[in-house]
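Reminder to self: tokens first, then the designed residues, so the page reads top to bottom the way the pipeline ran.
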């Protein structure tokens, strides 16, 4: 059965609207139908990841044929580096993440990992190579241990415990009366937004993928929790090819490169300091967010 769940890692993207962050089996099967149009190419071979060099080359995409969302995107993510994608709301950031996971096929261009077109390899191998920490984590109505182990079939108890430590949630789990056997989800213990995100991080650590997609939470976590989670995410991204979909600029300052998307195109890219010197869209967004921070307002998403 867990084999069947594997393509569901993208649930968080799709089910952003599910407020409680918990779903039942029935709704998961509905979801499976939504990407039925993506099929393995005839004779598709498994992806062979060597170093994890991710490239987007002239990527075009439209959900609806008469409204193009991505209009020729080139992004190079060298193996082991972190590239952040920022830009106004609706620019196409989350769409980009979905395409790397091949949740949809492109309408033009290609995406490669170590030179292999992701549309030409088996979906199972592609999805095994990519870990996603989504905005809203979906928890199964099962134990917290199961929810972590779901990252990879056959994960051992030791691996689950290691992952929980890596995600800084082991102490919390130990404090629960039934530890890893505590039931979570709508029929069990309700976890906070931050705790759920840590379960997602632990799930990803169990999977140990060479490529990571982090879709930063837009939902309000208190600033201390957010900073703690940010530190954990930075730690798990080290040594892996990482693409961060960022809604707050303060979290991308340390990225190796920042790509600014605007209306489906790359408006500019560079490091934080290079982009500030450019005095373009990024500098403008940064100044606006800095003003908001000074005014003591709640952090506002980068849009
Ligand atoms: P935000 O920062 O607000 O999350 P974003 O940059 O991630 O925005 P996307 O979610 O990628 O933007 O959306 C880009 C555009 O694609 C939007 O105009 C959106 O309405 C449209 N879009 C997103 N998902 C779908 C979908 N499933 N079907 C049709 N259009 C969609």
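Designed residues (303 positions):
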């Amino acid at each position: 059965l867990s084999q069947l769940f594997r393509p569901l890692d993208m649930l968080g993207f799709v089910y952003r609207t599910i407020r409680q962050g918990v779903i039942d089996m029935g709704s998961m099967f509905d979801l499976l139908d939504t990407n039925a149009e993506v099929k393995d190419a005839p004779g598709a071979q498994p992806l062979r990841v060597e170093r994890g060099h991710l490239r987007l080359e002239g990527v075009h995409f439209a959900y609806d044929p008469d409204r193009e969302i991505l209009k020729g995107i080139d992004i190079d993510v060298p193996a082991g580096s972190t590239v952040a994608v920022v830009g106004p709301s609706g620019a196409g950031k989350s769409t980009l993440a979905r395409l790397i996971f091949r949740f949809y096929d492109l309408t033009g261009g290609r995406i490669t990992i170590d030179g292999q077109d992701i549309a030409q390899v088996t979906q199972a191998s592609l999805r095994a190579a990519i870990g996603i920490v989504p905005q809203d984590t979906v928890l199964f109505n099962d134990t917290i241990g199961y929810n972590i182990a779901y990252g990879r079939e056959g994960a051992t108890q030791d691996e689950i415990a290691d992952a929980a430590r890596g995600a800084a949630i082991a102490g919390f789990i130990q404090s629960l009366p039934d530890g890893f056997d505590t039931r979570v989800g709508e029929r069990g213990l309700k976890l906070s937004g931050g705790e759920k995100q840590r379960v997602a991080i632990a799930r990803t650590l169990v999977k140990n993928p060479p490529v990571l997609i982090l879709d930063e939470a837009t939902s309000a976590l208190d600033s201390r929790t957010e900073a703690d989670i940010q530190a954990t995410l930075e730690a798990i991204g080290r040594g892996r090819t990482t693409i961060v979909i960022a809604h707050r600029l303060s979290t991308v300052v340390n990225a190796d490169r920042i790509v600014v998307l605007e209306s489906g195109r790359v408006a500019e890219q560079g490091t934080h300091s290079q982009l500030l010197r450019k005095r373009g869209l990024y500098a403008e967004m940064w100044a606006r967010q800095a003003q908001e921070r000074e005014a003591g307002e709640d952090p506002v998403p980068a849009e």
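Strands lie at 54-64, 67-77, 82-86, 108-113, 116-117, 130-133, 211-215, 241-245, 257-262, 265-270.
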